[in-house]
Amino acid sequence: MKGIQESSSLLTFIMFLLFFTMIGFLHGEELGTLSSFKASINDPLNHLSNWNSNNNLCDWHGITCDSMSHVHAIELSSKNISGKLSSSSTFHLPFISRIDLSNNRFSGEIPHDMFFNSSFQYLNLSNNNFTGQIPSGRSISKLETLDLSNNMLSGRIPDTIGSFSSLRYLDLGGNVLVGEIPISITNLKSLEYLTLASNHLVGPIPPQLGQMKSLKWIYFGYNNLSGKIPTEIGFLTSLNHLDLVYNNFAGQIPSSIGNLSDLQYLFLYQNKLTGSIPKSVFSLKRLISLDLSDNFLSGEIPELIIQLENLEILHLFSNNFIGKIPTALTSLPNLRVLQLWSNKLSGEIPAELGKHNNLSVLDLSTNSLAGKIPESLCGSGHLFKLILFSNSLEGEIPKSLSDCKSLQRVRLQDNKLSGGLPQGLTQLPLVYFLDISGNNLSGRIDDREWNMPSLQMLNLAKNQFVGDLPSSFAGDKLETLDLSRNRFSGTIPSQFRSLSSLVQLDLSENKLSGEIPEEMSSCKKLVSVDLSHNQLGGSIPASLAQMPVLSELDLSDNHLSGEIPRNLGRVESLVQVNISHNNFHGTLPSTGAFLAIHKSAIEGNDLCGGDTTTGLRPCKKSTNKNPIWGFIVACFIGALMLLAIVAFAIVFIKQQNSLSMKRVENEEGIWEMQIFRAKAITIEDILSSMKEENVISRSKTGVSYKGKCVSSGMQIMVKLINDVNSLPPNSWAQIAQFGKLQHHNIVKLVGICRSKKRAYLVYEHVEGKKLSEILGNLSWERRKKISIGIVKALRFLHSHCSSSILTGDISTDQVIVDDKDVPRLELSTNCFISPAYASPDASEIYGFGLILIELLTGRSCRDTGYYGSHESIVEWARYCDSDCHPDTWIDPVIRVHASNDHNEIVEIMTLALHCTATDPTARPTADEVLKTLESALRTSSWLPHLKFSSCVH
Q1: pTM of this prediction?
Q2: CA-to-CA distance for 835 and 829, rounded, in angstroms?
């Protein structure tokens, strides 16, 4: 008996010994696997600094252990970690059930044996840079969550996906997956969340999807899916969210959708759907948001909409709906956002709209609505956006809007509104945008208090307002003031000097008199001033030349007199001037904007001078009959003549050497040279630069070299153009126009040189780096400064060049940034458009929009594999802007430092998408871009609580 007990004790001891030996072995295996993982990655922020043998494995950052001290979970989300995952990595830890490596910079392929660990329950590798195909693997019976979204995974969705029987959450969105949705995916009967959005998927939705009765969320948007929306989708009675946006679905909306009694969000916008809205849709009583915009839907919006008692957001814009706006909308208590713009709606706006709703956004613009604007629109007290432009609305502006303290954006232009401006409307504290132009409004606006501290844009143009101009708007944020085409009289108030943020001032086509106030020069941010077609007198204040960014000045059709201030021609920013039809006399300045001014901009005066294109007579020398002074004058004239001879010789030499094309012969043949700057650059200077050690950059269009002018010591950059014969016949005349341009944000073109086989563009060398090379290291403040400089260069170009010589090749490679963060465009011709940046009409605005997107996201246009189903960075940006939280697309480098600037970043993204509109005519001008950009960088009006599927009106 004693022997048996001893044997039993020995066996127990051996078992414990084996058990702890096994535990020690497993712990050692886990330690080795994690140490190997750490050694294979880059951890720039040192999050894994305590991953060493001196610390208990379970205390390592991001590691969670179970009760037996085995590694149970690895959670390293958003740590800026990069590197590749090997097959023997963390996926093979024996007790691991949860891995979260999301929001990092991992790359390479996902290990092919990722799905060979049967203990997995949660796997999240989203928001990285993984490539290759999704591993097929075998079924993991315990896996409930699989998130591989927002990578660069390609190929088809593997058929084996249907074997993961326990999956409840599957997100493969934001990749480059192709092919059709595999029917095997419909085997996932426990699946609740299914996202395949933002890929390259094609074909129809499998009708078998209707068998997945547990589904609560379907997101197939931003693909190339086609066919009809299957009727079987109506079998998914647990569905809460259905999103099929940005596809090619056609036909009618299936009436079976009305069976989805739990549906709260129905998004079908940006498809090719036709017909009317099925009546069954209005039985979805739990529906919160309904967006059917940007389709070809027709018919009337039925009164049945009254049944959607929980509806908060209704987007039906950009369709072909007709008839009246249903009165039933007035009875929906939770309705916050109503956007019906760009349809064919007629009749009146329902009289009680807003009275019983919770309206915050109302956009009914671009329809055929008539009648009066209801008094009840701001009944909720929350209305902040009221957009009713381009209708036939009449009557007075409701006095109730004067009490709507929540209003921020008001657009009532291009209607038939009459009466005066309501008193309280000029005292709304939050309104930043007020446009009521193009109506029949009348009366005075100087007889009431203006107290609008948030006002940035005020447009009262094309009305019948009379009386004096208000002396103040009680705010220093006003950037655009347009009071043109009215009947204002009196003088321009000197108090306008307090408008310190004013960028654009248009007072044209009124009856203003008096002089241009000297105080206007205090508005240091003024870019555009239009005082034309008034009755202004006196002279041009010399102080206008002190306005540092003044670009456009129109003083035409007034009674101005005197001489044009000499220093006005020295304003570098001034690119467009019109002084026609006044009483000016004397000499036309021969500098700046007056240098090549069109004769139509100076006619109707008594001016002399200018070049032959102005049509002005030469200026005569004055005579003096006083004999004493005559001798002095004669001596003075003699001295001047001597200087003139010397100057003429210098100018003649410069013109011969610089402005004209000259032929030069050397051992390589005959060259034609044209030098635009007064520098003695020779063909030898250019050819001696052609050495491998002098290469600055290479591109498809040629190679750039750094060189030096031997005689002057000037540093130059020489760009070799490989295929000279591919250039259009008039290219060199067009390039020569560039040589005459000078701007702070443009690299100076010094000269051109060409032979029958080769050609060179010679630039002044700028010490700096390409924006594409340094973008990833720039702070948000530096990016803002650079973007402003680039668009200033574009505005200058658009004012001085014909469209035939402008180019869409405006990219981060064409922007040189110096050590003071001053950007300079390196110009080329329209022959060198880069395919990555080319738009449908190759406009510079499109290219600038791409630059903005890169500055905001940190992504490059060349990263074509990153954008999933989207063909370009623009499509991807549109998707991000409409469907993603800003933190998912803002460049991580600026995300932390710009946490207080998310609003302005989102506004600038909106501007970038406007610049990259598919329709070239919908893109803003360079001047409009600058104004919008400067406005967005000063204040922001974005409201993060509302999510829109399209651009803001």
Answers
A1: 0.70
A2: 14
For residue 575, is pLDDT > 50?
A: yes
d(CA 709, CA 658): 14
Structure tokens, 254? 């299936």
Count CA atoms within 13 Å of residue 722 on its CB side: 8
Q: Which amino acid is at 306?
A: I
- Using alpha carbons, select from 26, 31, 74 the residue that is nearest to residue 51: 31
Handedness of CA 784, 887, 942, 875 (dihedral sign): positive
What's the burial of 945, exposed, middle or buried (CB within 10 Å: 0-12/13-18/19+)?
exposed
Specify which of 24-33, 77-86, 318-327 reaches the highest per-range mean pLDDT: 318-327
**Count of residues making up the chain:** 953
Token pair for residue 49? 């600094």
pLDDT, mean of residues 317-343: 95
Taking 3-state DSSP, the helix, strand and coil percentages for the chain, each rounded to the nearest 5, stand at 30, 20, 50
Give me 626's structure tokens: 């006083």
Q: At what angle do helices 873-883 and 844-857 cross, to 10 degrees?
A: 60
* β strands within 145-229, DSSP E: 145-147, 154-156, 169-171, 176-178, 193-195, 202-203, 217-219, 224-227
Q: Which residues of 47-62 are buried (b: 16+ CB within 10 A; e: fewer)?
A: ebeebeeeeebeebeb
Token pair belonging to 839: 């738009």
| End-to-end alpha carbon distance in the chain | 94
**Helices assigned H by DSSP within 40-158:** none
Three-point CA angle 458, 558, 552, nearest 5°: 50
Of 307-321, 624-638, 676-690, the one with minimum mean pLDDT is 624-638
Which tokens is 85 given? 């995952």
Instruction: Tell me the two tokens of residue 408.
Output: 């921020």
- The Cα–Cα gap between 727 and 507 comes to 46
Query: Whole-angstrom Cα distance, residue 176 to residue 153?
Result: 6
Residues 6+ apart with CB under 8 A from 834: 700, 808, 809, 811, 813
How far is residue 143's CA from residue 146's CA, in Å, rounded to a whole number?
A: 7
Burial of 700 (0-12, 13-18, 19+ CB in 10 A): exposed
Pick from 36, 47, 170, 23: which is nearest to 95 by CA?
23
Spatial distance between the Cα atoms of 335 and 811, rounded to a whole number of angstroms: 44
Q: Using CA atoms, how far apart are residues 78 and 81, in angstroms rounded to an integer?
A: 8
Which residues are CB-contacts of 787 (< 8 A; sequence separation ≥ 6)? 851, 852, 855, 908, 933
* Cβ-Cβ contacts under 8 Å for 329 (sequence gap 6 or more): 305, 314, 335, 338, 350, 353, 357
User: Which two tokens mark 689?
Assistant: 């630069």
Cα 560 → chain centroid: 42
Q: Which residue has the tokens 């009765």?
A: 213
Specify the 3-state DSSP secondary structure of 567.
helix
pLDDT for the residue 953? 62
Phi first, then psi: give them for residue 310, nearest 5 degrees: -100, 5
Give the whole-angstrom CA distance, residue 236 versus residue 595: 72
**In sequence order, what are the residues at sequence separation of 6 or more whose Cβ sits closer than 8 angstroms to the Cβ of residue 46?**
none
Q: Per-residue pLDDT averaged across 669-685, rounded?
A: 71
Going by C-alpha positions, the residue among 864, 891, 892 that lies closest to residue 876 is 864
Q: How many CB atoms lie within 10 A of CB 946?
A: 15
Neighbours of 778 (CB within 10 A): 20
Strands 576-578 and 583-587: unpaired
Write down the pLDDT at residue 338. 95
| Rg of the chain over all Cα atoms, to the nearest angstrom | 35
